[in-house]
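Worked problem 6 (solution included).
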Amino acid sequence: MEQLKSFADRQNKSIHVEPYLLENTFELIMQNRKEEYTERVASKLKQIIDEHPDKRICTAQLSMVSAAENTYTETGIQIGNHSKSLADYLERTLRLHCK
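Solution. The predicted structure is:
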């Protein structure tokens, strides 16, 4: 969280961030139960969307990208994730032209 706030400060942006802990998911990913993990994360993302329809939602871990994309496909609501940010950064930094 501190890295995010520090980044926002350097960009002269003010942000309000409310973290959510997705209980009982760490064990799933550590046990290589990726499908269950993705389903549980996607379910929680949909719950957060329903509870906070006026908020922008982002995932904090690369392991959550599939769940974020699945949730977008089902709901039409974009969920920020590190994969997109990383791809954009690499494209700019390395001057890549991605298709």
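Discussion: The longest helix spans residues 34-51.
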